[in-house]
Amino acid sequence: MALNSDGSSGIHYQQLSDGLFQKFSDLVYEKTGIFLKPEKKELLNARLGKRLRATGIESFKEYYGYVIHDKSGDELVQLIDSVSTNFTSFFRENSHFEILTSTVLPAFVKEGRGKNKDILFWSSASSSGEEPYTMAMVVDDFVCQHPGMRYRIMATDISTRVLAQAKRGVYTDERIAKVPKAFLKKYFQKGVGSSDGFVKVKEDLRKMVHFDHFNLMGDFPWREAIDVIFCRNVMIYFNRETQQELVSKFYQALTPGGYLFIGHSESISGLKHSFTQIDATAYLKR
Fold first, then answer.
1. Which entry of 47, 113, 206, 232 is annotated as an active-site residue?
2. Around 38, how many Cα atoms within 13 Å sit in the side-chain half-sphere?
3. Sheet harboring 170-172: ordered strands across?
4. Where does CATH 3.40.50.150 sit in the chain?
5. What is the pTM of this model?
6. Judging by DSSP bridges, how do beta strands 170-172 and 198-201 pair with one another?
7. Whose CA is closest to 84, among 162, 168, 169?
8. 3 state DSSP class of 130
9. Nearest to residue 32, comparing CAs of 221, 230, 245?
């Protein structure tokens, strides 16, 4: 989850003051753990300008008060959706999925996992669905060759906007460029007529992925230990303290013999943890 320019113009009748930028930054950090650096001020100005136009509110100060006093929490969700842009793609950082098929899943077969209880996979920042659907394709293809394995895939994100897109499972042809042809044929339906240029994830695959709204800063609600966690390209937007807290929570949530995958631009080497590193950005809880 990253704060990136979307080419939109900010509101023209005012600029976000340093004081209000800090207030919004503190609020975003408190609620999501995302640290907005000062250089993000102009971008935040543009993003919040959209919410002012949508709500009819005339000033950033008034909008801040509106968010704070909205008991329903709906506008806070809108604010978070506005400042978070989710970049992702199918088979992004493909080496992680290669490790799943070459190391992780064979180890689970050897241990007998998936026989009496589901192997539990978690895409913890699922964005618009490409990561968990890639995970589902890779796992399903492996399970077809090793019948009898039971599994579930959880997918969560803080943005309700991208979760709605993920649940639909509809993507443009350009978005599936990295998907192997065999997987395209097996797991996607090609649009025709008015849907030409689009594909839809087949229902059987969509049913394998359970999407839910979740804030990583909250307490993990899972009662079952998780076997594989993907949290990729998220922690780069957190400060060191939040990274430490999250890595500790991931370790506690994993079952012994479980795996954590982080983004290629991330590292937990400077944090206190008990993971064993098995690859540049893949870790095992022994």
1. 47
2. 3
3. 170-172, 198-201, 188-190
4. 95-285
5. 0.79
6. antiparallel
7. 162
8. helix
9. 245
CA distance 151 to 114: 6
47 is catalytic: yes
Q: Give dist(CA 273, CA 171) in Å, integer.
A: 38
Given a contact cutoff of 8 angstroms between Cβ atoms, the answer to whether 119 and 151 are in contact is yes
All CATH 1.10.155.10 domain ranges of the chain, comma separated, are 18-83
Residue with tokens 């589901």: 118
Residue 157 is among the residues annotated as catalytic for this protein: yes
At the second CATH level, the architecture of 18-83 is Orthogonal Bundle (1.10)
How far, in Å, CA of 22 to CA of 15, rounded?
13
Contact predicate 121/227, CB 8 Å: yes
81, 140, 157, 227: the catalytic one is: 157
Distance CA 177, CA 89 (A): 9
pLDDT in tens, the chain (286 residues): 444 444 444 444 478 899 999 999 898 888 787 778 888 888 888 888 888 988 899 899 999 999 988 877 778 878 877 776 666 899 999 999 999 999 999 999 999 999 889 999 999 999 999 999 999 999 999 999 988 899 999 999 988 888 999 999 999 999 999 999 999 999 999 998 999 999 999 999 999 999 999 989 888 888 899 999 999 988 887 888 889 999 999 999 999 999 999 999 899 989 999 999 999 999 999 9
CATH no. for 95-285: 3.40.50.150
